[in-house]
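Customer escalation, tier 2.

The customer says the design service returned an amino acid string that "doesn't look like it belongs to this structure." They asked us to rerun it and document both sides in this ticket. The original structure tokens are below, unchanged.
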């Protein structure tokens, strides 16, 4: 007798958990930008470039994770 039966796709839980990493990453990048701008307001233009680069890299990795999850997920033939 099974204690609990899971039906449906567990991949959806994985996608939800995978969204935590990029969320934390974007939060850390924005926190560093705000702190750097508060310490030296004249460097806001330079650090804004790094803000956008960091954000783009984090989001690209998040999208790759979702795409690979669909491409190599449980429903695809191997």
């Amino acid at each position: 007798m099974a204690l609990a039966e899971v039906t449906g796709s567990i991949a959806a839980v994985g996608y939800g958990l995978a969204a935590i990493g990029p969320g934390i990453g974007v939060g850390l990048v924005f926190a560093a930008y705000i702190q750097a701008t508060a310490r030296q307001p004249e460097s806001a233009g330079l650090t804004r470039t790094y803000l956008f680069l960091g954000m783009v890299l984090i989001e690209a990795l998040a999208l790759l994770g979702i795409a690979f999850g669909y491409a190599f997920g449980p429903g695809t033939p191997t």
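Tier 2 assessment: The sequence is consistent with the input. Residues 20 and 62 are 10 Å apart (CA to CA). The first helix runs from residue 11 to 18. Sent an explanation to the customer and offered a walkthrough call.
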